[in-house]
Known about the structure:
By secondary structure, the chain is mostly helical. It starts with a helix and ends with a helix. Helix 3 crosses helix 6 (about 105-125). About 75% of the residues lie in helices and about 0% in strands.
Amino acid sequence: MIVALALVLSAAFGAGDQYLGSLTGSGHVWAAGWSSDISLLSAPWLVLPFVAGATQREPRRAALLGLACTYAALLGYALMTLSPVEHAHLTVATIRGFLISERNVLVGGVVTGPLFGWFGQQWQTKRAVAGALVTAAALCLEPPARRATIDPIRYRDVWLAEVAAGLALAAAVLVGRHSRHSQA
């Protein structure tokens, strides 16, 4: 049941990410331009398999669920991208175009999905902090890394929220580790 729920939520995450990015310039006052900044964030796509992996007791199952959730999210993203909601049509040509334009993401997911799923499982079952801190660091370091590129995060609130989420995850990991050692 947890696996099915994780896959459905992952697909919803991917579809929601794409939809959020499409709101820019759509007249939605509440979305302003920040929605495209949120949609372009990549670190949350690493948190997704981390969280999914944390639901598993066995490393292999965690890695496989991390991979499956990453691709379920990418499927949700693709279906939203190629849907009438986005003023697109699902055809062989649009699917081919999507696969070509997202090939680096699709290939990267083969590595990041299982790796971050395993990180989540290791943190949950063994309180191994290295992978959890790598996940937190991805959140904290994405804004400054993107600042050095042609596609920086434009809205300070988005930048701050992502760094705050990374710091909160790091704090939770370290507090959890400290409390476990205190109990031992």
